[in-house]
C-alpha cells in the first residue's frame, strides 16, 4: 500500500506538470478576439500546484481561485466558483469523441434518484447517492476507496417532496461536506470517510430536508434546506468548516410580527404579506443553488415558493410576499443582506427560483459585464449585474403563458391576468410546477458564449382549495391547491387549449447576450438531464431513453451515444489522470428506460457510476435479472368502490400521495407505480401499509394521523380505477 501511494505521488507530480502544460495550451487557444478583453478569460497565473496524496481533497480558496490552472481537476460540483459546469479540457473533441468507451463503472446500492455531479480531486472521485450516502473511488481504476452511509431514518423520505436525492459533496482542506436528507450537515475525512463532525441544521420535528450541495466560502460551509410544500420557513446557515459551529443564519421569509428573528429586511418584507401566513411556515426555502462570486464577494441563493401555493389561502389580500421566489445576495462572513431580486411577486404556481445560478463575463452592447445568470422554472432567462443585482435582460428561453415579458425597468413580470386562480376560478399555467428548467445543472461555454439548458415543456391546471375548509396538516403537502377539478377539465376542453401535462423536452443552446435560442436537440423520451460543456467543443448529457450523448457544441449534432441502461438526470463531470481525459456520470432515476431490463444486482433502476475514456471498451452487464423487466403488464382487480369513493380518493391522493407517487397515480420517480402494485389485490395489505406503516423501513410511513376515516380505502379505489383505465389504454395499443 505504501509503495503504491508513493508511486501514485510520483505519478501525480508528473501528471500535474503535464496538466499545467496542457492548461496553457488550452487557454491560449480558447482566447479568441471576443474574449481577449475579458478579465475572466485571462489565464490564471501558472503557479505550480503542490502534489497531494490520493484522497487529500486539499482544496482551499487559493486553489479554487486558480482552478483553471489545473483543468484536469473537478474540485466542486460546478468545477469552479462560477458554477459554469464547463471544462477547459480538449483531449476529447469532435474528431475523436466517437472512440469514447466505458473505462470502468461502479454499481450503486440504492435504487432511487441519483442526482450528484462527481467531484474529482487529488486522484479520488466522490459522489453522493440517494439516501445521502457518499462513495469514494480511485478516479483512474474505479477501485472503491470507502463508503459512508449516514443512516438517514427512512421516515424522512415521506417529507422529501421530490425523492430522497442528493446533489453532491463540497471538498475542503482534507474533508468532504455533505447535507443529509434529515437536515444534518456532516464533515467527513476525505481519505477515510470517517465523520469529523456532524450538526443538525434543522428542527428534526419539522419536515425539513436537505438535498443540495453545501458551498464552502472562506472557511464557512453554507447550507439551506427544503420543505416549502409542507410547513417550513426557509433559511440559509453558515457553519465553521473546521468546527461545525453556527456562524450566521439568514431567514428568507418573515415570522409572526414581533418575532426576534425578523431582521430589518424581514420587517419590511412583512408589509408585503397578509393574514396569518406564518402558521403555515411561509416557505421560501433555498433548496438548491448557493453560489459564491469572489469578484463581488457575495453569496447568492434562490428561494422557493410561498406556503401554501394558493395565495388566496396564504396571503388573502395578495402582495409580493417577500422574499419568496427571489434571488438574495448576502455577505459571506456575516450573512448580511446586500440586495434581492424577486422574480415572481406573489407566486402561486410553485415557481421556485432555486435553479442553478452561474457567473460569467459577457460582452453586452460592446461592454464587458460581470453577470449572474439563471434559467428558472418560469421560462424566462435572466442576466443581472452580479454586483448590484440590476437586471440587464430577461427573455423567454421556453414557452410560458403566465407572463408576456419582464419589465426591464421594474424587473417585474407582466402577468397574464388569466393565470391567477381562486377556489372558484381555475387556470391553465405553463410551465407546470416542475418548470421549464429545474435543478438539473446547465452549462456555459466561454468558447461558444452559449448556455446549454435542459428544457422541459409542460402545462398544468390550478385551482385553490376553499380557504375556509383548508387545514394545515403535519408532514404532508399543504399547497392548498387541487390538481384536478371540473373547472380545470373544462378549461382544457376548450378549443385551442394547450396540451395537458408533459409535452416535450430538449437540450437547448441559448445565447445569453442576444437572449435567443441557437439550437435545440430533442429528446426521444421526455425528461430533463444535467449538462457538461467542454473546450473540446462538446456538450455531454444523458437522457431518459437510457443513453449518454455527446453533441457538437456549435450545431447540436449528436456525435456519440452510449447505453446507460438507466434514466439519467445528473450532470457529468470530466477530469484528467496520467494524461488521459475521463468523463464521469451518475445514472439511475425513476424506473427503467422503455424496454430496458434490470441488469444490476444491487439496484432495481440500474443505478451506477459510469466512467468513460477514449478507446476503452468495457460493456455493461447484458444479463437481465429475473422479474425486473420494464414494460410490466397491468393486472389490477376490478373496481369495487363507488363513484364517490373514487372522487374522494382522487382528492386525498392529490394531497397526501402525489408528491412521492406521482400525479394521477403515474409514478414519475423511483417509487413503485401503485397501479402495477400486487398490493391492489388485497385491501387489508393496502391498509397495513398505508395506515399501519408496514413498509416504514422503505420510507412509506403510516398516514393514519393525517387521513380521515375511509380515506385510505378511497385512495385504494381511486388507484384501482386509474389502473383499470391504464389497462384499457394498454389494450387499445
Ligand atoms: Ca417548490
Structure description:
- By secondary structure, the protein is an alpha+beta fold.
- Among the domains are: 245 residues, no CATH class; 90 residues, Cytochrome Bc1 Complex, Chain D, domain 2, CATH 1.10.760.10.
- Helices cover 14% and strands 28% of the residues.
- The protein has nine helices and 37 strands.
- The strands form nine sheets. Strands 25, 26, 27, 28, 29 and 30 form a six-stranded antiparallel sheet that branches. Strands 1-31-32-33-34 form a five-stranded mixed sheet, with no helix packed on it. A four-stranded antiparallel sheet has the order 2-37-36-35.
- Helix 6 crosses helix 9.
- It is globular and about 70 Å long.
- The N terminus is likely disordered.
- The site of calcium ion has 6 residues, from loops.
Provide a short characterization of the protein structure.
The chain contains 9 helices and 37 strands.
Structural class call reads alpha+beta
**Tally of strands:** 37
Radius of gyration (Å): 25 Å
Count of runs of 4 or more consecutive helical residues: 9
Q: Which outline best applies?
A: globular
Give the helix proportion (percent range). Answer: 10-25%
**Model regions low in confidence, pLDDT < 50 over at least 5 residues:** 1-43
Summary keywords:
733 residues; alpha+beta; 6-stranded antiparallel β-sheet; 9 helices; 37 strands
Write the layout of secondary structure elements.
Elements: H1 2-30, H2 61-65, E1 86-87, E2 100-107, E3 119-121, E4 124-128, E5 134-138, E6 144-148, E7 170-172, E8 175-179, E9 184-189, E10 195-200, E11 215-217, E12 220-223, E13 235-240, E14 246-251, H3 264-270, E15 290-293, E16 298-302, H4 311-314, E17 326-330, E18 337-342, E19 357-364, E20 367-374, E21 380-385, E22 391-396, E23 403-406, E24 413-415, E25 427-429, E26 443-445, E27 450-464, E28 481-482, H5 486-493, E29 501-511, E30 516-522, E31 531-534, E32 538-542, E33 547-552, E34 558-563, E35 573-577, E36 580-587, E37 608-614, H6 643-656, H7 658-661, H8 683-690, H9 711-732
Parallel strand pairs: 1-31
Antiparallel strand pairs: 2-37, 3-4, 4-5, 5-6, 7-8, 8-9, 9-10, 11-12, 12-13, 13-14, 15-16, 16-17, 17-18, 19-20, 20-21, 21-22, 23-24, 25-27, 26-27, 27-28, 27-29, 29-30, 31-32, 32-33, 33-34, 35-36, 36-37
Bound molecules: calcium ion.
Calcium ion binds at residues 228-229, 304-305, 350, 352.
